[in-house]
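Exercise 4. Each item below gives a protein and its sequence. For each, produce the structure-token representation.

Item: Nitroreductase family protein (Dysgonomonas termitidis).
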Amino acid sequence: MTDFQQLIISRRSTRKFTEEPISPEQVEIIMKAALMSPASKSANPWQFLLVEDKEMLDKLSYCKKSGSRLIAGCALAIVVLADPLTSDVWIEDSSIASIMIQLQAEDLGLGSCWIQVRERYTMSDTPSDEYIRELFDIPMQLQVLSVIAIGHKAQERPPFDEEKLQWEKIHIGKFNIDQLAE
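Answer:
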């Protein structure tokens, strides 16, 4: 990417990936971005589980009723975990780390998609985080926030259409209640 603004405009969720693996160097760069993400009071409550094994990716892809099957086709899934005993803002800190992962992947020319796990369920109504915890022997004290699927893009999506920006959602000085009625 040439600059941050172009990175933001270009980053779109990718749901179809090629079979091409991600290089170890790319994985290291992505994980450095995750480990450098800001966290409240530098508590760094997050941890990351990297999954590249195709059989495990397929099993992981059943973590939700819908919206998670794309994991089976990615090259790398990063399970974003956090310890709520380390920080009361573990959700926020882990969310920041998740988007840092996605922005770094985009900067490397890779595609990614955030799969929400917290407060979601499998087809059999098992909590998604419980399904993932059992699949990978994750300790009980760690919460599962998300899975970030990463891979080489099978198709390019057009950049974000700036004409569709919802400027009415921005309030200056005080909240404008009249905008809610429009």
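Check: The two ends are 37 Å apart (CA to CA).
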